[in-house]
Amino acid sequence: MKTDIILSGVGGQGILSIAAVIGEAALKEGLFMKQAEVHGMSQRGGDVQSNLRISDKPIASDLIAKGKADLIISLEPMESLRYLLYLKEDGWLVTNSRPFINIPNYPEIEKINEELGKLPNKVTLDVETIAKEVGSLRAANIVMLGAASPFIGIDYDKIEDGIRRIFSKKGDEIVQMNLNALKAGYEVANQIQKK
Amino acid sequence: MEKHLFLGDEAIAQAAIDAGLSGVYAYPGTPSTEITEYIQNSPLASERGIHSNWSANEKTALETALGMCYAGKRALCCMKHVGLNVAADCFMNAAMSGVNGGLIIVTADDPSMHSSQNEQDNRFYGNFAMIPMLEPSNQQEAYDMVYDGFALSEKLGYPILLRITTRMAHSRSGVETRPLQPENQMNCPENGRQRFILLPALARKRFTALLAAQEDFVKASENSIYNRHFDAPNKKLGIITTGIAFNYLSENYPEGFEHPVLKITQYPLPRKLVTKIVEECDEILVLEEGFPFVEEQLKGYLELGVKIHGRLDGTIPREGELTPDCVALALGKEVKSFYSIPEIVEQRPPALCQGCAHRDMYDALNEVLKEYEKAKVFGDIGCYTLGALPPFHAIDSCIDMGASITMAKGASDAGIFPSVAVIGDSTFTHSGMTGLLDCVNENSPITIVISDNETTAMTGGQDSAGTGKLEAICAGIGVDPTHIRSMVPLKKNFEEMKKIIREEIEYQGLSVLIPRRECIQTLTRKKKAAKK
Ligand SMILES: Cc1ncc(C[n+]2csc(CCOP(=O)(O)OP(=O)(O)O)c2C)c(N)n1
Ligand code: SF4
After folding, report:
1. CB contact under 8 A, A46 and B351
2. Residues B481, B36: Cα–Cα separation, whole Å
3. What is the ipTM of this complex?
């Protein structure tokens, strides 16, 4: 098994916490993993991305090659489009549908949706709304992870275990809320995939 | 053996601790910062009392590390690539004295300039100082090379330059650690005065010794288990990789190499191994992260030898970091995208946080400077450099740390008025203070704004060396205390801020303005930590 994932979003949205759960699950599975992160600028609001590679064989490059990413997970719709050069022909794009508008020339959302519509394999969902429904806006990342979970190549229950381990320090209530968030995201993806 | 998921930076830090480190000395700088932060947060390091406080700048860091090595202990000194420019005086001369305890100097280079002003390749510094260099190809090697590197430094008697780049520093991978070693005992060098007093007569002897040591360094490279030759059938081409370039090459040959490969991770160049691949292959391709360092050495000025491909002939782009794609193209392989980036996708540059004190400072400064057509504002490096972008468009320069004050002085000497410098608190203590003394000595009519957010924000909010002391420092250097004026940059103080700025610009002498309000990111982090 081998999955190459590009995570994208806007600085401060917390793409790295998604990577942390996947990494935790991958490591427990005994998989190899490489994850190139973006650090540095502590101010908020610029575009950020991370390359996450997991495989049952050793991984050479820290960066994913063009046209080879199995999955793009994005917390922001325009940011999801920025990495399309990297998406495989049959790869999946899973993105938050709610724009984060902090630049004056942000494109019209209809145009973004039009571009997303051209892709054969995609899941779009409003993670903030779903996160609020299951308990907290803070779980938005985990809703996103849930929506991407069918494409990661790691069993769903292993990802649940990853969440339990990562959030265990914060108490059972937080763990349960995040498990619900994961489930809610997963349901959306599952329905779209079935269509 | 335990396996951990480590950033390259963390692997280096853990390896240093495990190898019996006694002190890390550093000034923050992306992508090197996490090495020191890891040691600061390590329970084992604090149990052992390993020194890990930040230094005021890279030069003080390296000199302090050298002092620790003088006393026989193992020291690590970390900086981003441009930091070595600041530390270069000590760096070049530490190669003359050599070391007693092991010293590893980490330079974290930033090709593609993800967060830097240039993409200088500090392997040239290693060559310049004529000391051994390590350039690991992955996180495990980074760990192992540092773990063994202190002993290597002690055996050879010289500091070692460890060169990493952004993708090594900030990429995570599984790393196996090795047993914890005791720290070195204190042990001053027996012939210390002969080595550490670089008076010309003694320095000449040291230089002779350094030249003589070169052969040892080459032998160490030739015997290094990390410099490796891989045989393959097709000898039309031989490929030399350095550091992480090896990974991009391997990525393109999942079934095994087609051409012979020489993987280099220790310098000076392993002469025998280089000779072997050059002799057995018709042409050579050099893959290296950064400048054409190996390529130039092999090619020579007159290009008389074997045909060399790389960054100089355009086989690899001359600028920017390597990618699996540019390596694939260099190997004649296809790179194919299936989707293109829609034209509607816009740039999204970083911006000063909402509520940031630098915003209020720039708003007030901009308002006042509207009254002066010829004003120039010399900026510096930190979050406040983003004042260059809309909506502020507030600065005219940003060159290197500390240059705001001295450039403003030079511009004022040339007749520019008003000449304003904007500098952060950490940058001021890093290298603004000495320039301030130049201004004091001539009472230069410039206005210096030290925008004090009480932290080193740009690199993630490390302690700032001058917090709570800035007024005293300026007065101590000799600025007239009536022209050292602090203010709280908030909307409600806007009129008062403007008044002070205007008065001090009009004053025909040196003034220092200190708008002070804590960085909101640091403040939020502190509040969170207090809740726990
Ligand atoms: C020689 C050198 N060392 C380190 C850096 C990395 N660096 C850039 S800005 C900065 C600190 C800025 O702190 P401060 O001046 O207080 O401004 P702030 O970011 O807090 O606004 C550092 C460490 C650099 N660019 N050059
Ligand atoms: S991190 Fe701090 S100093 Fe930097 S922009 Fe944000 S609030 Fe301002």
Report:
1. yes
2. 37
3. 0.94
